[in-house]
Structures are given as structure tokens and as C-alpha cells.
From TrEMBL:
Gene Ontology cellular component terms for the protein in this record: cytosol
Enzyme Commission code(s) on record: 1.5.1.3
Protein name: Dihydrofolate reductase
A GO MF term: NADP+ binding
InterPro entries: DHFR (IPR012259), DHFR-like_dom_sf (IPR024072), DHFR_dom (IPR001796)
Similarity remark: Belongs to the dihydrofolate reductase family.
Any GO BP: tetrahydrofolate biosynthetic process
Top-level lineage group: Bacteria
Residues of the DHFR domain: 2-161
Keyword field contains Oxidoreductase: yes
Enzymatic reactions: (6S)-5,6,7,8-tetrahydrofolate + NADP(+) = 7,8-dihydrofolate + NADPH + H(+)
Pathway(s) annotated for this protein in UniProt: Cofactor biosynthesis; tetrahydrofolate biosynthesis; 5,6,7,8-tetrahydrofolate from 7,8-dihydrofolate: step 1/1
Length: 162
């Protein structure tokens, strides 16, 4: 199983505030959709509740401490370990947030798909964990300049565990 963390984070690792993303980057959304469609996606309850509806063509695995939590068509578990066990063991699985779930899962992850958002250090209450370059190797980096649809420069980065 490949466990991939996928996120968009500012240079200060900011992810979001008040359960909302800080920016609107259509090409980052396209990349997220392209990479995660057809796969299991693991997330915390608050991340799930930030969506207007479940994301199409993906199996949602929601981690919550609430014992009686239900979400139609989704798998609900109470720990990261249970979430991983609920996923196919021979496929790539994506961890999509939030900050607490990323912090719990970075040690077991094999891959990180990070959109690094440049030129902004927003106020945030959720952060992506620091990527320790003694443990991770960047294998791909694609710069995307800001344009009429994107307020910020960004770089799509792929890391694999050494």
C-alpha cells in the first residue's frame, strides 16, 4: 500500500483557518482531482464537513472520535490505524487532511504530493507537518506562476520516503 499525503500549504506550512482553505487555486484542485479520483481518501471529520457534499468517484474514510457519527456512503472509523485497515492494501490511498490527521500520518506515509503556495504567510489554525529532508527526497517539482485565475505562484512537489 502506498499512503500519500496530499495538500496545499503556504511556505509557513499554513493549510487553512476556521475549517476553510485560505486560497482558491483551480489548477491545484484539478491536480487533486486527477490524483485522487478512483481512490480511497482518508480525512478527519472536520475536513469532511467542510465539503458541500462528498467528492465524486472516491471512497471517503472519515476519522472521528464521535462514536455515533455517520455519513451516508462513507466509511467512519475512530483512528488512523482503522482508516488504513479499511482501505485496499494493494492500492494508493490518499490522506487529504486536516492538520491533525497529516501530523498523525506523516510517519506512516510513503509519499507526499504537496502544492507549495508562494508569497503568502497567511494566518492559519491548521498546518502541514514539516517535511524532514533527511527522511524525504523530492523527486518532482513543477512551478506554476500566478495568472488571472491564480492569485499566487505555486509549485507542485512530489516527495518519496528515503
Amino acid at each position: 500500500m502506498t499512503i500519500t499525503l496530499i495538500a496545499a500549504a503556504a511556505e509557513n506550512n499554513a493549510l487553512g483557518k476556521d475549517n476553510q482553505m485560505i486560497w482558491h487555486l483551480p489548477d491545484d484542485f484539478k491536480r487533486f482531482k486527477q490524483l485522487t479520483t478512483g481512490h480511497y481518501i482518508i480525512m478527519g471529520r472536520k475536513t469532511f464537513e467542510s465539503f458541500p457534499k462528498p467528492l465524486p468517484n472516491r471512497t471517503h474514510v472519515i476519522i472521528t472520535r464521535q462514536q455515533d457519527y455517520t455519513a451516508e456512503g462513507c466509511i467512519v472509523v475512530n483512528s488512523l490505524e482503522e482508516a488504513i485497515k479499511a482501505c485496499p492494501q494493494d492500492e494508493e490511498v490518499f490522506v487529504i487532511g486536516g492538520g491533525e490527521i497529516y501530523n498523525q500520518s506523516i510517519a506512516t506515509a510513503n509519499k507526499v504530493e504537496l502544492t507549495r503556495v508562494h508569497g503568502v504567510s497567511p494566518e492559519a489554525d491548521a498546518f502541514f507537518p514539516e517535511i524532514d529532508l533527511s527522511k524525504w527526497k523530492m523527486v518532482e517539482e513543477v512551478f506554476h506562476p500566478k495568472d488571472e485565475k491564480h492569485a499566487y505562484d505555486m509549485t507542485f512537489q512530489t516527495f518519496i520516503k528515503k
